[in-house]
């Protein structure tokens, strides 16, 4: 008898594991029941999507029926969307219209989110606000210790992102104060920095693109944001294709899939052909095995492999700058990019070949020596980046032991750096074969 009980136990375990691989249905959770009820009141027809927790992506949506190419995944009525129109028809509207200089559409949405969150039970948007993340993992929210571990180009962008939110907060203080008549509490405590950071990240990571006509009460920045409850639970995959747009006839925001999806699997959409640095910067996550991923070579790293004694060095750098060949130089799964090799060929030109720089930019070969030197330098840069990445991964594993509170943020940077390492090792292999070939 014991034996058969063990087998059923194993069977049950296997079943549990399988369901976890597929995703654990969360429809029964009160927050989702309330959200679905709220959406239904606004005209949303129940689709085949269910909120679920997935092993690799966390929270997402699973399908209860197999999806074929050309199927409609979701159709969300205009009434469910949160836009600047929503903000203007709220009690904030009158204050926004009167305020000079005009606020940006982005600030209007941030202000609305903070005010509604503060209203708590009284907010008509509470069922949506309750399912929004409490915290975010965009670089703007990371500790300086973690930001320091990011690759150089991303670290610079992360610091810029942080400064941008700080500047938005500084420049919006007077506007926030003007809203005092609407609140019993001091606006300074409601519209504080962490509230703005949370609202900014909510909009930056979750809005869908939807063009709205310009209104006089807003600044000239494009008004292209819409928050889409429920729809924004769909996670990104670089390997799927979808068509997403607002349908003027039905007045619904619709997403159609061009990729098949099996029953009970997670339904993905694609946010665009972004590499992992862009995904982390804009959305706060990293996609493993991302075909669009690349490792960037900073101008400083590039130039340290070329002698400062080269009389034409200054002219070469100037040519690269003028033709935009000092930025976006990368290693990818296919090896060094054409742009990186082109920049290396220009910098490798001998004194007697310098006049041929235009031909290189057009993709011509000047000499076997030039080709050889460019490939050799690419291999050295690649090796340097491999060692640098390995060193950072070591730092991360030490920090994970010492700083319990930073564990989730460190794990994210670790994922990014591990993927970088795999790309660089693949590139080193390709360069080794190319160098042997030449």
Structural write-up:
The protein is mainly alpha-helical and 438 residues long. Among the domains are: 82-227, set domain protein methyltransferase, domain 1, CATH 3.90.1410.10; 294-437, set domain protein methyltransferase, domain 2 (Alpha-Beta Complex). It is built from 17 helices and 13 strands. The protein has helices at 2-22, 30-41, 84-88, 93-98, 105-119, 126-129, 144-147, 152-178, 187-190, 193-206, 276-283, 299-303, 313-322, 338-347, 357-361, 368-402, 407-437; strands at residues 24-25, 49-54, 58-63, 72-77, 208-209, 225-226, 235-236, 242-247, 252-257, 268-269, 294-296, 330-332, 335-336. The strands form five sheets. Strands 1-2-3 form a three-stranded antiparallel beta sheet. It has a three-stranded antiparallel beta sheet with strand order 4-9-8, with no helix packed on it. Strands 11-12-13 form a three-stranded antiparallel beta sheet. Helix 5 packs across helix 10 and helix 16 packs antiparallel against helix 17 (407-437). The longest helix is centred in the C-terminal third of the chain and has 35 residues, at 368-402. The protein is globular and about 75 Å long. It starts with a helix and ends with a helix. It is found in: Cytoplasm, Cytosol; Nucleus. It comes from Rhabdornis inornatus.
Structure at a glance:
With 438 residues, the chain is mainly alpha-helical. 49% of the residues lie in helices and 11% in strands. Among the domains are: 82-227, Alpha-Beta Complex (set domain protein methyltransferase, domain 1); 294-437, set domain protein methyltransferase, domain 2 (Alpha-Beta Complex), CATH 3.90.1420.
